[in-house]
């Protein structure tokens, strides 16, 4: 597809604007929307795309969500690079590690290698349901890049980085929809990279209070009862001692009650049949950690 665009520019319209560089799926520069879906155009076959419509016409557009600069060129500075920069994607080598001896085990490199193969094509961001409504969210592309530095054992700013990533617009804005993973052509599974950062933040007890409490309460109630205790989740997300926050929940609780939804918290919340099996999954996971 990219070659076809080059040909059109050479032979028909020298003003046509689009991006593309490596022509081999490596640089992530040629992402566009083809037939309504994000595509790496240098890896997209014209013949195959033409067969998708009855008249053989291939609709091509700039990527969705970002501002268009010209024709098929989008503003990648705002949509992409500013966010990557906000994650501070450079390794700050711990000075205790010798200048000539940057130690990293093969196992750790293996874990990082997949994330390092990210071409920053932006397709995961294209699929992201949160970015679709809030462009300020860092997004799966930038967070996959952030995973690279967070997971590097040579870096001396581990906790500082996790704290940065768990602030507003960071990892806790992820809606767990797995769309980013579905969209990634490299099989990097950006959603799992975000979950990995979640786990690290929880382990280090960092980040924004509400999100952290929500995460912990969710897991604790499923562990205890085999299913979610919604009333407990609402209370604990606000914070047990936060009287003002809890009082704010009353109108919502009344509204839910009027519609027949009256969840009972804590010991009044019934245990699900099979809750012991669910608890054993938690226990196995806790031992593994
Ligand atoms: S994680 Fe995958 S989809 Fe997202 S920018 Fe990297 S290569 Fe593209
Ligand atoms: S031109 Fe580099 S990925 Fe398409």
Question: Summary?
Answer:
It holds the Pfam family Fer2_3. The protein has 289 residues and is mainly α.
3D architecture notes:
By secondary structure, this protein is mainly α. It folds into three domains: 73 residues, Beta-grasp domain (Ubiquitin-like (UB roll), Roll); 129 residues, Alpha-helical ferredoxin (Fumarate Reductase Iron-sulfur Protein, Chain B, domain 2, Orthogonal Bundle); 80 residues, no CATH class. It is 47% helix and 5% strand. The chain has 14 helices and five strands. The model has no long low-confidence stretch (mean pLDDT 91).
Q: In total, how many domains does the architecture comprise? A: 3
Roughly how many Å is the radius of gyration?
Answer: 23 Å
Q: What number is the mean pLDDT?
A: 91
Overall geometry: globular
Main pleated sheet: 3 strands, antiparallel
CATH superfamily of the largest domain: Alpha-helical ferredoxin
Please report the distance between the alpha carbons of the first and last residues. Answer: 46 Å
Low-confidence stretches: none
Bound compounds, each kind once, are: iron/sulfur cluster, FE2/S2 (inorganic) cluster
Secondary-structure-based class equals mainly alpha
CATH architecture of the largest domain: Orthogonal Bundle
CATH topology of the largest domain: Fumarate Reductase Iron-sulfur Protein, Chain B, domain 2
Classified by CATH, the class of the largest domain is: Mainly Alpha
Cofactor: [3Fe-4S] cluster; [2Fe-2S] cluster; [4Fe-4S] cluster
Family: Belongs to the succinate dehydrogenase/fumarate reductase iron-sulfur protein family.
GO molecular function, one term: electron transfer activity
InterPro entries: 2Fe-2S_ferredoxin-like_sf (IPR036010), 4Fe4S_Fe-S-bd (IPR017896), Beta-grasp_dom_sf (IPR012675), Helical_ferredxn (IPR009051), SDH/FRD_Iron-Sulfur (IPR050573), Succ_DH/fum_Rdtase_Fe-S (IPR004489), Succ_DH/fum_Rdtase_N (IPR025192)
């Amino acid at each position: 597809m990219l070659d076809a665009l080059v040909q059109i520019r050479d032979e028909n319209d020298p003003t046509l604007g689009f991006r593309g560089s490596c022509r081999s799926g490596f640089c992530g520069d040629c992402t566009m929307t083809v037939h309504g879906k994000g595509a790496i155009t240098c890896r997209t076959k014209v013949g195959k795309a033409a067969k998708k419509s009855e008249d053989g016409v291939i609709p091509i557009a700039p990527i969705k969500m970002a501002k268009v600069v010209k024709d098929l060129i989008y503003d990648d500075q705002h949509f992409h690079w500013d966010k990557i920069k906000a994650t501070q994607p450079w390794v700050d080598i711990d000075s205790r590690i010798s200048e000539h001896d940057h130690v990293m085990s093969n196992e750790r490199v293996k874990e990082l290698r997949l994330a390092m193969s990210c071409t920053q094509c932006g397709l995961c961001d294209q699929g992201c349901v949160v970015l679709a409504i809030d462009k300020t969210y860092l997004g799966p592309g930038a967070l996959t890049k952030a995973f690279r530095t967070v997971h590097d054992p040579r870096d001396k700013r581990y906790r500082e980085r996790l704290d940065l990533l768990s602030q507003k617009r960071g990892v806790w804005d992820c809606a767990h929809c797995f769309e980013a993973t579905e969209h990634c052509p490299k099989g990097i599974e950006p959603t799992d990279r975000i979950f990995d950062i979640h786990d690290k933040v929880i382990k280090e007890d960092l980040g924004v209070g509400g999100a952290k409490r929500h995460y912990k309460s969710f897991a604790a109630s499923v562990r205890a009862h085999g299913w979610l205790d919604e009333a407990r989740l609402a209370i604990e997300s606000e914070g047990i001692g936060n009287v003002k926050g809890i009082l704010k929940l009353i109108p919502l609780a009344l509204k839910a009650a009027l519609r027949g939804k009256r969840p009972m918290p804590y010991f009044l919340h019934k245990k699900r049949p099979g809750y012991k099996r669910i608890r054993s999954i938690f226990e196995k996971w806790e031992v593994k950690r």
